Amino acid sequence: MIPSASGLLRMANPVLRLPGVYRRVLAQSVAVFVYHEVSENPSPFNRQFGLNVQPDTFALQMEMIRERFTLLHPPELLYGGFRRPVALITFDDGNASYFTNALPILKRMKIPSLAFLNMGTVRGEVCWSGLATYLQQHEPGFRAGWTRAPSGDDYVRFTEPEVARYLERVDAEALLAKVRAFRGQIASLEEVEAASREPLLYLGNHLYQHHNATLLTNGQLEEAYLKNQEVLDQFPRGLRFVGYPFGRGDRTTHARLFGLGAQALFLGGGVPNFHLGGRCFARIPMTDGVVDEHSLAQAMVQNILPEFCRSWIGGGYAN
């Protein structure tokens, strides 16, 4: 019997985690690592999705990465001319813990980092990813009247009109207060402005309100990108780099954003990058479980085949 495609991927993944394979992958890679929260007391949202790394573990990971990679400043990705392996450290969502806990560690180690921000959330608006997740998991009434069957990742598929209709039927102020507590503390505009003077800190575009780019119309995506970029351009190292919210992008969104002036796009995926012929980069999510060379190897190579198969089909990493 010929194994299915998913069966072949399951058979191949243990081979990719062998030390010799890992070393070959490491030697050729441009690894873009992505973090969210770095805290001893993570928010319910970040804890639930495994998006938090303890500060001591984060410091250990930075040591491991610094020993094995040359650490890039973000603009260097576009210019090339460096010897591999290289790595870039990125953060998503503008969690306050990045500025209070992670940035001092990065400064002490002289490691550059790129923080992708939603300026709507930084300016005090409720975070869309937190709101969508909370509605799915904690508001049974939100599903009332649905004709479609719910799925586990509905929170990345909700649209503003269906959320707005629900907020009109409930005590929106009380609900949004619960969402903010669930989502956790986001840095203020004043904190971002103060930190932006740090020469190792670069700021990127995570769209204005963390909406799934693949669900936005041309006009909505244009507004979400440009409204965010207008603020970022005022900072000394505000870049026209886009980190896709939820890691979701495709050939259509790539073309739209490059047409609006974006210089590089960063997706989910969990794989190293092996060529720099284009301007789309996959990112490797880091968790509290990465504590030694073996777990770092696993984080880097375990998703190579399934992610590249999915991206080939969907155009996620098209350059």
Describe the protein's topology.
Elements: H1 5-16, H2 19-28, E1 30-35, E2 37-38, H3 44-48, E3 52-53, H4 55-68, E4 70-71, H5 76-79, E5 86-92, H6 96-109, E6 113-117, H7 119-122, H8 128-138, H9 160-167, H10 172-183, H11 189-195, E7 201-205, H12 218-232, E8 238-243, H13 251-259, E9 264-267, E10 280-282, E11 284-285, H14 293-301, H15 304-314
Parallel strand pairs: 1-5, 1-11, 2-3, 4-5, 5-6, 6-7, 7-8, 8-9, 9-10
Helix pairs in contact: 2-14, 4-6, 8-10
Tally of separate helices? 15
| Unreliable stretches covering 5 or more consecutive residues | 1-6
Q: Which series of helices and strands comes N to C?
A: HHEEHEHEHEHEHHHHHEHEHEEEHH
What does the overall shape look like? Answer: globular
Quote the distance from N terminus to C terminus: 36 Å
Radius of gyration: 19 Å
Sheet with the most strands, sense and barrel status: 9 strands, parallel
Helical/strand content category: alpha/beta
| Arithmetic mean pLDDT | 88
Helical residue percent?
40-55%
Number of strands: 11
Strand content: 5-15%
Question: Could you walk me through the main structural features you see in this protein, from its secondary elements to its overall organization?
Answer:
This protein is α/β, with parallel strands linked by helices. About 45% of the residues lie in helices and about 15% in strands. The chain has helices at about 5-15, 20-30, 45-50, 55-70, 75-80, 95-110, 120, 130-140, 160-165, 170-185, 190-195, 220-230, 250-260, 295-300, 305-315, and strands spanning about 30-35, 35-40, 50-55, 70, 85-90, 115, 200-205, 240-245, 265, 280, 285. The strands form 2 sheets. Strands 1, 4, 5, 6, 7, 8, 9, 10 and 11 form a 9-stranded parallel sheet that branches. A two-stranded parallel ribbon has the order 2-3. α8 crosses α10 (about 170-185).
